[in-house]
Write a structure and sequence with these properties.
Layout: E1 10-15, H1 32-45, E2 52-57, E3 69-72, E4 76-78, H2 86-94
Parallel strand pairs: 1-2
Antiparallel strand pairs: 1-3, 3-4
The structure holds FE2/S2 (inorganic) cluster (FES).
């Protein structure tokens, strides 16, 4: 086993879980993959890959509140993200780096 410090200053976990039963709420059915793609694009464009990791995550048990994002080391949980929240969210998440 290798134990080492986390190599990123921030990790953004985005739930992309998609349930087979369309009657059950899930982040994957609420465009969370698009949030991942946009976040990764911004991180790439701003040369922040060395500092920020955007990572896909499975279900976190708050499916009805999705899309859900967890941010570490801050320990912040964003839920119910709407299209109109995205710019604020991206600015907030990347604030210390831009
Ligand atoms: S599907 Fe995202 S929290 Fe369950």
């Amino acid at each position: 086993m290798l134990k080492q410090p986390v190599p990123y200053r921030k990790i953004i976990f985005v739930c992309i879980n998609k349930k087979e039963d369309p009657s059950k709420p899930c982040c994957g059915a609420k465009k969370s993959e698009e949030i991942v793609a946009k976040l990764k694009q911004i991180v790439r464009e701003r040369n922040l890959k060395e500092y920020i990791r955007v990572s896909k995550l499975g279900c976190m048990g708050k499916c009805e509140q999705g899309p859900n994002i967890l941010v570490y080391p801050e320990g912040i949980w964003y839920s119910n993200i709407k299209e109109e929240d995205l710019q604020f969210l991206f600015d907030e998440l990347l604030k210390p780096f831009i």
